[in-house]
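Sat 14:20. Reprocessing the chain from the morning session after the first attempt stalled halfway. Input below, unchanged.
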Amino acid sequence: MIELVGYLGMFLLLLAWALVTESKITSFIISAMGSVLVATYSYCLQAWPIVILNIAWLIITIYNLGRIFNEED
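Finished this time. Tokens:
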């Protein structure tokens, strides 16, 4: 079951990159969800470098989402 979380997270991250030229907001939201899932999967496997990488990716994604929403105001 935990492998499904990892595969889903990887799929969402790849989908986010594929969509980045279409819609940045959608891409960033999907990327954030993928990062959370991959970090969760990596945590369960105690793969700490991957956990740290995906937490950093999540922080960057949230920061960029905030920038996009602030530009629209």
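The CA atoms of residues 15 and 37 lie 14 Å apart.
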